[in-house]
Amino acid sequence: MISSAAQLLGARRVVVKVGSSSLTTLDGGINLEALTALVHACQQLRERGTELVLVSSGAIAAGLAPLGLRTRPADLATQQAAAAVGQGLLLAHYTRVFAEHRATVAQVLLTVDDLIRRTTYTNALRSLEKLLALGTVPVVNENDAVATAEIRFGDNDRLAALTANLLHADALILLSDVDALYDGPPDTGGQPVARVRGPEDLNGVTLGRRGRAGVGTGGMVTKVEAAQIATSHGIPAMLTSAANAPALFAGEQVGTFFEARGRRRGARLAWLAHLAHVKGRLIIDEGAVQAVVRGRRSLLPAGILRAEGDFEASDVVEICDAAGAVRARGLSAFSSEELPQMLGRSTTELGADLGPDYERPIVHTDDMVRLEGTL
Ligand SMILES: Nc1ncnc2c1ncn2[C@@H]1O[C@H](COP(=O)(O)OP(=O)(O)O)[C@@H](O)[C@H]1O
Ligand SMILES: N[C@@H](CCC(=O)OP(=O)(O)O)C(=O)O
């Protein structure tokens, strides 16, 4: 049985995510002592030669006090404003403290869209790879100042899991204000869980949504989801408190270790299975189900019975069988306006009728995830 310590000591590249609750004080300021201790702990990893990407929350919380706000605002515009103020402060502190170790910090702000479109996905990947190759510490956060409610990750736990996937990291480390996953909310007598081998180990575990004083966003639910995204893609995950980071990085057994289960696979479409904002549905016939789901082929217009919803080309659609069960998700190459004239027709006929652009599949197999076993 591989230990979390062994996984970490041998890691070539890790993604560390730290939550708002670990970085901010109760009255909405940045907890400089905690941030400094975190940076020193991260340096332990880097000095062993491990590449580190830090996904840091805390922008909204850090922006509250400077704006005279007492609690996290409910409306998106004020959250955006607080994040725009707080993110700069946060980065200034990371830059200063990492500089004590002669390390250069790089800020990377991502939206869901950046990890969806093929071009922007490749861009994000190339940029992060280059930053690591140059020896910097990329500090990633959601681009809260511009992310709308509709296209938000909403929580950095999943953003961190998708970043770990994107970068083929060897481990995802989730640091919070609680030292482990408990089998029930820790303040009501839950007991720590040391190891999660698979979903069966989560039976009977009660996950709370809200953390301390509502500073964090997802509670334990999004952390366990993030761990599951990582492990199902072959990446082990570890969850403990930021205060325990030095012990964890030194190889001690602390917190909860989620064993990797799935095989490592292409990262680009991970978001499709776990997080996509679905804009429409394509209902397909039985022949198309066989071809697309079993045969792993592209979805052609001939097999589509009808299209539902209002979507643009490159938006995410669900691909459903005639009974309505979702069998796959993918990026539609055509908009909902273009589709009706194409459905049920062969690509050769469409090419002859409408031009060569219409000979393409509706959803290319490379732009699709089959959902059996992933959800
Ligand atoms: N089963 C559980 N095990 C551990 N912590 C839990 C559990 N259920 C709810 N929690 C709460 O989740 C909180 C962490 O989530 P959150 O506040 O979103 O953290 P962060 O800001 O680190 O993302 C903990 O403070 C804890 O009170
Ligand atoms: N992007 C937001 C953080 C959202 C979030 O996931 O917060 P948390 O649950 O504390 O990790 C911010 O920087 O405030």
From TrEMBL:
Binding residues for substrate: 57, 144, 156
Subcellular location: Cytoplasm
PROSITE patterns, alphabetized: GLUTAMATE_5_KINASE, PUA
Database matches in Pfam families: AA_kinase, PUA
Record-linked InterPro entries: AceGlu_kinase-like_sf, Asp/Glu/Uridylate_kinase, G5K_ProB, Glu/AcGlu_kinase, Glu_5kinase, Glu_5kinase/COase_Synthase, Glutamate_5-kinase_CS, PUA
Metabolic or biological pathway: Amino-acid biosynthesis; L-proline biosynthesis; L-glutamate 5-semialdehyde from L-glutamate: step 1/2
Residue span, PUA domain: 280-359
GO molecular-function terms, A-Z: glutamate 5-kinase activity
Catalytic activity entry: L-glutamate + ATP = L-glutamyl 5-phosphate + ADP
The EC number(s) this enzyme carries: 2.7.2.11
Residues at which ATP binds: 17, 176-177, 217-223
Keywords: Amino-acid biosynthesis, ATP-binding, Cytoplasm, Kinase, Nucleotide-binding, Proline biosynthesis, Transferase
Known function: Catalyzes the transfer of a phosphate group to glutamate to form L-glutamate 5-phosphate.
NCBIfam families: proB
Protein family per UniProt: Belongs to the glutamate 5-kinase family.
Name of the protein in its database record: Glutamate 5-kinase
Source species: Nesterenkonia flava
